[in-house]
Amino acid sequence: MNTAELLELDRRHLWHPFTQMSLWGAEDPVLVIDRAEGFHLVDTDGNRYLDGVSSLWCNVHGHRVPELDDAARAQLNRVAHSTLLGLSQTEAILLAKELVDVAPRGLTRVFFSDAGATAVEVALKMAAQYQVQVGRPEKRRFLALAEAYHGDTVGALSLGYSDWFHRAFAHLKFDVVTAPAPHAYRDPRRLPPEEFAADAAERVSRLIATHADTLAAVVMEPLVQGAAGMLVHPPGYLAAVARACRAHEVLLVCDEVATGFGRTGTMFACEQEGVVPDILCAAKGLSGGYLPVAATLTTERVFGAFLGAFHEGKTFFHGHTFTGNALGCAVSRASLRLLRERVLPALPARVQHLHRLLEPLRALRHVGDLRQRGLMVGMELVRDRATREPFPMADRVGHRVCMAARRHGVILRPLGNVVVLMPAPGMPEALLDTLVTAAHAAIVAITEAA
Ligand code: PLP
């Protein structure tokens, strides 16, 4: 079937996520990805594009990785899927053990699901039920950061707030305590970095203390709020939240769906501030970005609160059909092996290399703030650097930059006026050069035109 025929069927039958379908294909040409080679995606007309956002932040080692492909094929010769309800299964057992081995010390129990949002839903229900079962039923609310994004299921979206995305669901959301996002660039006080860091830590700690009596858990993305625009938190912020949580018997849930598996320069972001959360959510890169595998990890302390005689009703009544999918677990095991042996040792040099490549972009006239943590990068484009005046949203500057990058053979996806670079942790340095060169050219072409 040729591209035109496929596009006709796409228009007739597909409903794309986060997409105004009345404009789909009308404004910008639609690429139909047909295959991949390493870090490149190839469309139905044979054009190659560097995958600059890791296929929505999940790809780790590139595409068609021999070790991952072999693991999938070998598993297909055994079993693709069987349930964890009432049965166990080899690959799920081994992946649970191997995840515990690489997770922050103390996270010893693994509950599998199949998406970032489900990993977060599991965490919310686990935290809520935990507090009831340890005799603190009044601790039933959650604290989250402003502009947080934890997924699109109703529980996960209750934690975040985007007026634009969530207006239609406002009545479905539960009440959440919101702490300000520790985002220095948009703070009108323009404090020096150290003062801002101390103030942000102090504010969130005070909020946790104030609401401690009713808080089941604090839920946050550690180090970087991804979908909020790659907001890099000041040093010490995560550790301060962890301390306040400990002091007030509030659980700490770290959503590492975006930050996990090398993305911030270490296996998990929490490690960088020596924090072991009570609950950790992982998805996206867990399977190397191949298959929908997610996990919610917790401690023996939390797990222990769910033990009892059946009639006591302490069971965690939650599960999904594809919980612990064997094919996904087999590929995830292969991915973890490659991460440990090949990717993590090379990461510090790769992160430094990316930092050096980005230096010239900091000087561009319309790059207001350039944020990098590991391989997560957000470049906030502004109309006026001195006043930090944003480009009007209606101008869709971020989107236009990403479309321009395609002309240089690179796929990018913006977050409003923030151009995101999210190379796969396994991407070699020569391809990081290609990625940054294309982003640079595209930003200049769109923001400095006329
Ligand atoms: N949590 C975070 C921090 C995310 O960035 C995302 C997705 O971008 C999610 C949760 C939701 O993951 P999924 O799209 O797999 O449901």
Averaged pLDDT: 96
Instruction: Specify the overall morphology.
Output: globular
Full CATH superfamily name of the largest domain? Type I PLP-dependent aspartate aminotransferase-like (Major domain)
How many independent structural domains? 2
Computed structural class = alpha/beta
The small-molecule ligands in this entry are: pyridoxal-5'-phosphate
Q: How many DSSP-defined strands?
A: 18
Main beta sheet: strand number and arrangement?
7 strands, mixed
**CATH topology heading of the largest domain:** Aspartate Aminotransferase, domain 2
Low-pLDDT parts are none
Helix content: 25-40%
Count of helical regions:
13
* CATH architect. name of the largest domain: 3-Layer(aba) Sandwich
Spatial strand order of the main sheet = 4-12-11-10-7-5-6
End-to-end C-alpha gap? 42 Å
Strand content: 15-25%
Report the CATH C-level class of the largest domain: Alpha Beta
Q: Rg from C-alpha positions?
A: 22 Å
Explain how this protein is built.
With 450 residues, the chain is an alpha/beta fold. It has 2 domains: 3-64 and 363-447, Alpha-Beta Complex (Aspartate Aminotransferase, domain 1); 68-339, Type I PLP-dependent aspartate aminotransferase-like (Major domain) (Aspartate Aminotransferase, domain 2, 3-Layer(aba) Sandwich). It is 38% helix and 18% strand. It has helices at 3-13, 54-57, 66-76, 90-102, 116-133, 154-159, 163-166, 193-211, 237-247, 300-304, 326-362, 397-407, 429-447, and strands spanning 33-37, 40-43, 48-51, 107-113, 141-145, 176-179, 215-220, 224-225, 231-232, 251-255, 279-282, 294-299, 367-373, 376-384, 389-390, 410-411, 413-415, 418-421. A 7-stranded mixed sheet has the order 4-12-11-10-7-5-6, with helices on both faces. Strands 13, 14, 15, 17 and 18 form a 5-stranded antiparallel sheet that branches. Strands 1-2-3-16 form a 4-stranded mixed sheet. A hairpin with a 4-residue loop joins strand 2 and strand 3 (48-51). Helix 3 (66-76) runs antiparallel to helix 11 and helix 11 packs across helix 13. The longest helix has 37 residues, at 326-362. The structure holds pyridoxal-5'-phosphate.
